[in-house]
Structure formats: structure tokens, C-alpha cells
């Protein structure tokens, strides 16, 4: 089923370069705590001036989480603050301040073995928590991380990624229009034994999708990342980086068992099912870290 | 000259994979439209070619394939190592 209405992500991410630059300088000169203080004021500005994001978080709080109006207002603030904190923390980590943070690894033995092997791995994440804060740590396994994103999104954040030196930590594979080039780049990266990271929770216009019940309501998940992962026939790991305390993150890995499914065409469906369960479990625990700011749910169903 | 056996093999594989009636596959017919392929189906196509015919496909290969005839020519030439 192709997705062709307003309930899809436009392909652009919000956030000005100047604002980002201010935070980069602030963190470099005065540290993370001062940036957090500034953030607490900036968030108040974003609530009225980012109306579509505000509306999507409000509905998430009121309809999905069942919170009242007053609680939803506080949730809105916490949610925006959580996104800002995630950005500050990834800037700080990329500036080399990672020794100021504590990182816990929830990494089962099978995942540890896999990531230490020469096997290419597809890593499926989400717009939840702060996945990018963990990207430099994949270097510990001595492999290169390839992040797949839409060209429009990449062009919008390229200057920020360059400024933040994120492109030192990972390579970007862009999806451009109808070009199939990205599929071959993914295949080649996996054949070299590298990691390929895709986000499983955001659909763009015209993208094939599948409806799943997520957090009690019907939502659309993109089929692309799951089809690609299933067809490449490599291990799939779900990965999330959750903020669990002041300057503290947990890197959370779950190995998919989709390889147990014999029928090729059923594998992507199995992967989506697994992903939805794993993601739902995390979002229920840390709802304010859900940073998918568009109308993700079909509230009429 | 393409062997008729190869054409038949390709048609059977395509019809099974993309669940279409083999009779609608004609050399002059448009491959994408006849098989109702979208970009995700092309992932299947890449895997299918590499698995069944044993050579690696590149993005630019697909740019030149419009009809089934083009597809037969492509498979045949790559199997004979002429590209």
C-alpha cells in the first residue's frame, strides 16, 4: 500500500543552523550544563512556533497516552526538552566530551558476538531516544557505520553534521528520488562486513507501508527498511539509545529472529511485528523520548 | 542470439516471483508495467538475478532495461561475460 496523504513525513527536519551553531559554541566554551539552562528557555519558544510538531505531541499525549490537558502541557515541554537535550548531548559527545557521560550497554551475548564478527549487519533504529549519540561507539567494533537517509533530509542537516563532525563517525547513504543506487550501496557495505543503519518508524509520501497497532492505535510503518533487511539475508539488530539519567544513556540492542522464518515474503512482515513490539516496549517506558514529530497514528481508526 | 531455453527459464522465474500469468510476458512488453514493479520489488529483482544467474547487478544496469527483450539481452550478455 502506498502512502499518499498528509500523514507522512515531508522529508525535512526542523532546526536552524544558526541556533545549532550557538549551542555548539556554548557547549565548547561553557559546557553542557549551561546549554541545558538555555534549552529550558528555547523549548518555550518552540511550543507555539513549531505548531505541527506541537500538535502531533499534543495528540500523542492526549490520545495515545491518555493524559489530561494539564499533564499534556507538561509532557509537551518534557518532550521538546528531551529532543533538545538529545541534540546537546550528541554535540558534546562528538566534541570529545564522552568521558563526562556514562553509557550502559544492554548487549546480549549473541549481539556482542555478532558485532565482533566480520558479518555485515542491518541495524534498525527509531526516532526515539538519541541513536546518534551511540554512533561513535560502533567504532569500538572496528567497522564502519552507514546511515541510510533521504537526500532531502541529508541536505537539510549536512552543514550541521559537518560542523558536529558526525560524518567522521558514520558514512551516509542517501535515497534520491527513484534512483536504486542506495540499494547497491547497502548491499556493497554489507558485503564488506559493515553496519547499515535504517530507521523503521518514519514514512515518506508514496512509500509502501504496513498498518500495525502500536501503543493501542493503528499506525503506518514503512516496509522499505524491513524488505531491504530481509532480502539482504544478513542478521538484523534493533538498536535504541535511551536517556536514563543525567548525562547517562543506555545502548539497547535486540537481535531479530527473522531468519527462523522460511518463506521469503513473510520475513519482512515478521520483522515489522518484532520491531513494533520492541519499540512499543521502549516508548511505553520513556514516552517523552519519542521524537517522531508528525502525525504518526491514524487517530480515526 | 538468445537460447529459447534461457528465455523460458527467465519467464518462469519472473512469473513465479512476481505472481503473474506467464502468458502476459511478451518480449516487447514493458517489464516494470507488466510485472507491476515498484522500487521495493526491484530489491527482489536484484536478489533474484544474483541468486539464479550468479552475477552481480549494478544500478546502471537497470537504467537500460525497458522491455522483456532488453532484460533477456542483459541476462544473456552478462552470463556470457560480455559486459
Kindly describe this structure.
The complex is a heterodimer of chains A (301) and B (83). Chain A is of the alpha/beta class. Chain A contains 10 helices and 9 strands. In chain A, helix 1 (17-30) packs parallel to helix 6 (151-163). The two termini of chain A are 17 Å apart. With 83 residues, chain B is mostly helical. Chain B is 61% helix and 0% strand. Chain B contains 5 helices and no strands. Chain B has helices at residues 4-17, 31-35, 39-53, 59-63, 68-79. Chain B is globular, with a radius of gyration of 12 Å. The chains are: A alpha/beta (301), B mainly alpha (83). The interface between A and B is medium-sized, with 14 and 12 residues.
Search tags:
A: 301 residues; alpha/beta; seven-stranded mixed β-sheet; two-stranded antiparallel ribbon; 10 helices; disordered N terminus; B: 83 residues; mainly alpha
- Report the sheet-strand fraction of chain A: 15-25%
Q: Please identify the oligomeric state.
A: heterodimer
The helix tally of chain A amounts to: 10
User: Which stretches of chain A are low in confidence, meaning pLDDT under 50 for 5 or more residues running?
Assistant: 1-6
For the largest sheet of chain A, list the strands in their spatial order: 1-9-8-2-5-3-4
Q: Which whole number gives the mean pLDDT of chain A?
A: 87
The main sheet of chain B comes to:
none
Q: What is the radius of gyration of chain B computed over CA atoms, rounded to a whole number of angstroms?
A: 12 Å
Structural class of chain A: alpha/beta
Main sheet specs of chain A: 7 strands, mixed
Global morphology of chain B? globular
- Largest interface, per-chain counts? A-B, 14 and 12 residues
User: Any idea what the radius of gyration of chain A is?
Assistant: 19 Å
Estimate percent helicity of chain B: 55-70%
- Could you give the count of β-strands of chain A? 9
Distance between the termini of chain B: 16 Å
